[in-house]
Amino acid sequence: MNTLAWQSIDKQLHDNVAAIQHIDLYNRQYIPNGNGDIATFNRPAVFIEFGTTTWNDLVNGVQSGPGLLRIHVVIECYADSYNLSTRTETEQDAILAYYDVCNNVHTTLQGFTACNTLSPLERINRTTDHDFDNLIVEIMEYTFIDYDNSADEDAGTVLQPINHVEIQPNVVDEVEEPEWELNKKGEASASPFLFTAAPAVSFQ
């Protein structure tokens, strides 16, 4: 699990969705145990679940691949939702509050970049869990591309500085090349000139 992403998503939700009373990693908190009890937490609550990441090898131990994030939004609701249009405004607000929280959570996370190793979140699915009497549970799934260089074989490699530079003396080669000039008779004649090579440099 990418702990930086977890911390960043937690903060993003806490800072932008004021209605949320509880944020945690998902661990079946709202699923009843053998005695029919669930974990104690304030509601509305959001539970963060990191699903499967399919890793592909890149180079030198670096991997990348598509991942899955599930966001569980849990709201306690005792309001009867039948005949919504006939209810008072206060009753309608109580009934629709659940959807407001879910929509605000999605607005906050859609396109959010949790950390510099993850691509922006993109929602791909939304479903409602109807298995509870007084809880409404909405599950939204987001995809992203994860990048992991924790096993990079080159991690920590430091380039060594050049400790010594040796410059060799200039090498002068006398090259017979025609440098044309007029003699006293007005005839062109050639004379030699010197060609100087560039200094040779070697690094050690």
Q: Beta-strand percentage?
A: 35-45%
Shape descriptor: elongated
Could you tell me how far the N terminus lies from the C terminus, measured between alpha carbons in angstroms? Answer: 45 Å
Structural domains: how many? 2
Radius of gyration: 36 Å
Amount of helix: 10-25%
The CATH class of the largest domain turns out to be Alpha Beta
Integer average pLDDT: 80
What is the CATH topology of the largest domain? STM4215-like
Please explain how this structure is put together.
The chain folds into two domains: 146 residues, 2-Layer Sandwich (STM4215-like), CATH 3.30.2000; 39 residues, no CATH class. It is built from two helices and ten strands. Strands 1, 2, 3, 4, 5 and 6 form a six-stranded mixed beta sheet that branches. A hairpin with a 5-residue loop joins β8 and β9. The relative contact order is 0.16. It is 17% helix and 36% strand. The two termini are 45 Å apart. About 9% of the residues have low confidence. With 204 residues, it is of the alpha+beta class.
Summarize this entry quickly:
The protein has 204 residues and is an alpha+beta fold.
Keywords:
STM4215-like, 2 domains, 10 strands, elongated, 204 residues, two-stranded antiparallel sheet
Topology readout:
Layout: H1 3-16, E1 22-25, E2 45-50, E3 56-57, E4 63-76, H2 89-109, E5 122-129, E6 135-148, E7 165-167, E8 172-182, E9 188-196, E10 201-203
Parallel strand pairs: 1-2
Antiparallel strand pairs: 2-4, 3-4, 4-6, 5-6, 7-10, 8-9
Helix pairs in contact: 1-2
